[in-house]
Amino acid sequence: MANDISRVNIIENVGRKLQVQFGDNPIPVNEIVKEARKISNCRYAKSSIMPSDFCYNSVNKDPASASMNNPMFRRDARGKYMFLGKNYPYSGEVSWTPKGKETRIIGEWVNGNYLPHDTLT
Which residues pair with 95 in a beta bridge? Predict the structure, then answer.
C-alpha cells in the first residue's frame, strides 16, 4: 500500500515511471509532484515533493548540511529533471546557489562516488 512507502521510494518510483514516458526529455517538476501525490494518496504536501533534494548535480541548501544519500535525478534546467536512478555511475560537478549569491561548484561525482570540495566558503 502507498502509505507504507517512504517519500524517497515514492519519488524514485515516480521518476522511473515518468522517465519511460518522457524518454530522452527531462520531466517537468509539476508532473513529478502530481504523480507522487497520486500514488501516495496525497500523503505528502506538494511542497515536500522536491526532486531538487535528490539531484546528483545540484544541492538546494547549505552544502555543509547537504546529504548525497539519495541522489536519483539530474537537474537539466529550472523545474526540469532527468531520472537516472540511485547508484548511477554519475560523473559531473555539483553546484549550489547560496541565497542572493552566484552559483558555485561545491563538489563532484566521479563514476558514482561523491567528492566534496574542501572549500565551502
Answer: 58, 105
- Cβ atoms of 27 and 18 within 8 Å: the answer is yes
Instruction: Name the residue ranges covered by the structural domains of the chain.
Output: 2-116
| Model confidence pTM above 0.90 | no
As a whole number of angstroms, the distance between CA 70 and CA 81 comes to 15
For residues 5 and 76, give the distance between their C-alpha atoms in angstroms, rounded to a whole number. 27
Distance CA 31, CA 14 (A): 9
Cell numbers 574542501 correspond to what residue? 118
How confident is the chain (121 residues) per 10-residue block, as mean pLDDT? 70 96 97 94 86 90 66 95 96 91 92 82 49
Given this model, what pLDDT does residue 69 score?
Answer: 78
Provide the residue type at 74 as one letter.
R
Cα dihedral 49→53→56→62 (10° resolution): 170
Integer Cα distance of 23 and 14 in angstroms: 14
Task: Identify the three-state secondary structure at position 12.
Answer: helix
